[in-house]
Amino acid sequence: MNRSRNTMKTHGAAELQSLWMKAGELREASIEMDVSIVQIGRAFAVDERTSRRWMSGEILVPAGVSVLIRLLVALKRKLSYREMAAALRREAEMLDALADAKEAKMRQVKPQTQPQAAA
Q: Could you state, in order of their start, the residue ranges of all structural domains in the chain?
């Protein structure tokens, strides 16, 4: 079975759980913004099947799309610029933490040593 790379099973990274929007949050966002899931999918240039998979929870909404949807909801709520900036900082901090974890994991992998040539 070909699993999407967007599934938590494939990634398994705990950090992604807070970055990627889950079905319930997407459902709430679509209701609050008064748009259908198909309209959200079209806005992000994905086909209807993908947007329905997001809504069913079969796959998680990618981090970048999740951030933009959260910002659109914030604008709909007319949050102050300070509140929006704080939300953006939180998202950026989570992305930085994920990048740092990836870098640390890469450092743990020891490079293979080259055999020395005979003189």
A: 23-95
